[in-house]
């Protein structure tokens, strides 16, 4: 699942997780743990050297260095193990990561959450109260870039407008359940 910051994708993903008894993938990162973060629960905290080695060995479904510093990536082995157990595995990733996952797992269910419009997204970002005005403007500029990049044909299976949280959650669930039904039939 992808979408711009403030669009509600994490809330939708948590609702989906609960409805289908899914699991969130725990990403690996080179950044230091934040207050209260636990290794293995929030992230797999690894050294920069270990991250680079994992990348070289193809251990990630998707990975990137953010702002040229911190590495983030989705480890392939735990995701594949959970899928083999029949679980729905949720990834909260950006468009670049989604392209990597699509390449590695062409049958993955890829959802992109859209805001109803830019003014609603701006209001949601402001209402969160986390960011200064300049940061909100950067997030909106990034959202515009993400929306454009997400429109690559075949990258996402469905675009979901989060105008109503219940309807957006149901749209995500319908896509996931439909995909599971197709796989069970084959």
Question: Could you please describe the fold and organization of this structure?
Answer:
By secondary structure, this protein is of the alpha/beta class. It folds into two domains: 1-22 and 90-186, 3-Layer(aba) Sandwich (Rossmann fold); 25-87, Guanylate Kinase phosphate binding domain (2-Layer Sandwich). The protein has helices spanning 9-20, 48-56, 76-84, 95-104, 118-128, 133-150, 165-185; strands spanning 23-24, 28-29, 44-45, 60-66, 70-75, 89-90, 111-114, 158-161. The strands form three sheets. It has a four-stranded mixed beta sheet. A two-stranded parallel ribbon has the order 1-6. Helix 5 packs across helix 6. The radius of gyration is 17 Å and the shape is globular. The chain starts with 8 loop residues before the first helix and ends with a helix. The relative contact order is 0.19. The mean pLDDT is 92.
Keywords:
single chain; 186 residues; Rossmann fold; four-stranded mixed beta sheet; two-stranded parallel sheet; 48% helix; 16% strand
Q: How is the topology of this model organized?
A:
Layout: H1 9-20, E1 23-24, E2 28-29, E3 44-45, H2 48-56, E4 60-66, E5 70-75, H3 76-84, E6 89-90, H4 95-104, E7 111-114, H5 118-128, H6 133-150, E8 158-161, H7 165-185
Question: What is the N-to-C succession of helices and strands?
Answer: HEEEHEEHEHEHHEH
Give the class from helix and strand content and strand pairing.
Answer: alpha/beta
Classify the helix fraction into a percent range.
40-55%
Shape: globular
Number of domains: 2
Give the CATH level 1 class of the largest domain: Alpha Beta
Question: How large is the share of residues in beta strands?
Answer: 15-25%
Distance between the termini: 24 Å
Low-confidence stretches: none
Q: Let me know the largest β-sheet.
A: 4 strands, mixed
**CATH level-4 homologous superfamily of the largest domain:** P-loop containing nucleotide triphosphate hydrolases
CATH topology of the largest domain: Rossmann fold
Number of strands: 8
The main sheet orders its strands as 3-2-5-4
Mean pLDDT: 92
Helical segment tally? 7
Q: Supply Rg.
A: 17 Å
- Any idea what the CATH architecture of the largest domain is? 3-Layer(aba) Sandwich
């Amino acid at each position: 699942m992808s979408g711009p910051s403030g669009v509600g994708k994490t809330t939708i993903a948590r609702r989906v997780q609960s409805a289908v008894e899914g699991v969130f993938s725990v990403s690996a990162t080179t950044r230091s743990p934040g207050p209260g973060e636990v290794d293995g629960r929030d992230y797999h905290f690894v050294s920069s050297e270990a991250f680079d080695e994992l990348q070289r060995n193809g251990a990630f479904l998707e990975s990137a260095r953010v702002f040229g510093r911190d590495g983030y990536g989705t480890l392939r082995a735990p995701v594949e193990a959970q899928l083999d157990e029949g679980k729905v595995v949720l990834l909260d990733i950006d468009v670049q990561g989604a392209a990597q996952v699509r390449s590695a797992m062409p049958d993955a269910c890829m959802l992109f959450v859209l805001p109803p419009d830019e003014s609603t997204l701006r209001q949601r970002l402001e209402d969160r109260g986390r960011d200064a005005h300049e940061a909100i403007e950067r997030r909106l500029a990034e959202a515009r870039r993400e929306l454009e990049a997400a429109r690559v044909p075949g990258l996402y299976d469905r675009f979901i407008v989060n105008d109503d949280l219940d309807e957006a959650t149901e749209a995500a669930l319908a896509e996931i359940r439909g995909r599971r039904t197709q796989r069970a039939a084959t």
